[in-house]
Amino acid sequence: MKLLLCLSMLFISSLPSSYSCNSKDENTLLQIKKHFNNPDLLSTWSPATDCCTSWTGIECTNGRVTLLSMSKDNNLVGHIPDQIGDLLELQSLEMSYMNLTGNIPRTITKLKHLDFIFLKWNRLSGPIPDYISELKNVTFMDLSYNKFTGPVPGWLTQMPKLQTFQIDNNSLTGPIPNSFGSFADSVPNLFLKNNKLSGKIPESLSKIDFQAVVLAGNSFTGDGSMFFGGNKRTVQVDLSRNKFEFDLSKVKFGKSMALLDLSHNRIFGKLPRELTELPLQRFNISYNRLCGKIPRGGKLQTFKSYEFAHNRCLCGSPLKKAC
Ligand SMILES: *[C@@H]1O[C@H](CO)[C@@H](O)[C@H](O)[C@H]1NC(C)=O
Ligand SMILES: *[C@@H]1O[C@H](CO)[C@@H](O)[C@H](O)[C@H]1NC(C)=O
Ligand SMILES: *[C@@H]1O[C@H](CO)[C@@H](O)[C@H](O)[C@H]1NC(C)=O
Ligand SMILES: *[C@@H]1O[C@H](CO)[C@@H](O)[C@H](O)[C@H]1NC(C)=O
């Protein structure tokens, strides 16, 4: 009995060691710690313990580091360390709320398994580097709340698995790239809110079935109707606070449209009757140039009058103005 217990304990204690932290990965992490001047946030990163089981923000598969998450409002200063590129099995990289400066280092292209990139709420700057397009396994990229400048990267179409690209509150300029009319394998959700984007949306985007497009708070002009279409599966369109100018009467909506914000534009025409057939959860058409009777039914009358306010001549419930 005693022997059995002893043996099983031996067996159990030998389990973790067969998957203990890869020594190259451990060294890389210790270099990253040093790069940030040994901050309190990384006090658990000590050679005395196993990086896979005892270090904050680290996860491993078979002893290789697959996740690095430094997501604390801890005011770490400096650049993203080049050594990141030596964590060769990394799948998820998170360095958010950290006040990091500089750009994303080229060494990131060594991370062939990278799937998730979360770098939001830093002070990263410069154009989004085109070598990011070499990361063919990335599905999710969030660069929101940084200081990136330059264009919206046209090469997003070359990232075959991309599902979400988020870059709210940066300083990107210029138009939506023409290449966005040719997403092939995977059409990503686009969150480009609060940048300095402008120009007309390429007509070719009418072919693309986005699930979510958020362009709020830019200076886009002209037609925005290409984001809609009777056969599309689009759930969210937010074009608010731009200078879009198109006839809403002619727009056909897909059956899944639930979050629709067109407020603060120059949209004219009437509200299509079909709006009463949509599973709307959010709806805002205030501050446009719309006219005519608000169709009755569906979810439309559940929204507040201020969500219809400041149009040219809309009338009917929920507005007080009778037709
Ligand atoms: C980021 O760094 C700047 C300058 O070092 C500092 O003024 C600011 O308070 C920091 N922000 C945060 C959220 O810690
Ligand atoms: C993507 O990941 C898979 C499995 O993790 C890997 O086999 C493949 O080489 C990666 N693709 C690229 C282009 O790096
Ligand atoms: C994001 O951008 C909007 C519009 O420019 C601005 O009002 C808002 O304060 C920004 N948010 C942050 C957290 O900087
Ligand atoms: C709709 O837009 C108006 C005017 O900007 C704003 O007051 C209201 O909060 C918005 N509603 C929603 C649900 O976003």
Automatic annotation (TrEMBL):
InterPro entries the record matches: DNA_repair-toleration, Leu-rich_rpt, LRR_dom_sf, LRR_N_plant-typ
Record keywords, A-Z: Leucine-rich repeat, Repeat, Signal
Organism domain of life: Eukaryota
Primary localization class, coarse: other
Gene3D superfamilies for the chain: Ribonuclease Inhibitor
Cellular localization per UniProt: Cell envelope
Domain Leucine-rich repeat-containing N-terminal plant-type residue range list: 23-61
Signal peptide: 1-20
PANTHER family according to UniProt: DNA DAMAGE-REPAIR/TOLERATION PROTEIN DRT100 (PTHR48060), L DOMAIN-LIKE PROTEIN (PTHR48060:SF21)
Family: Belongs to the polygalacturonase-inhibiting protein family.
Name the UniProt record assigns to this protein: Leucine-rich repeat-containing N-terminal plant-type domain-containing protein
Organism: Brassica oleracea var. oleracea
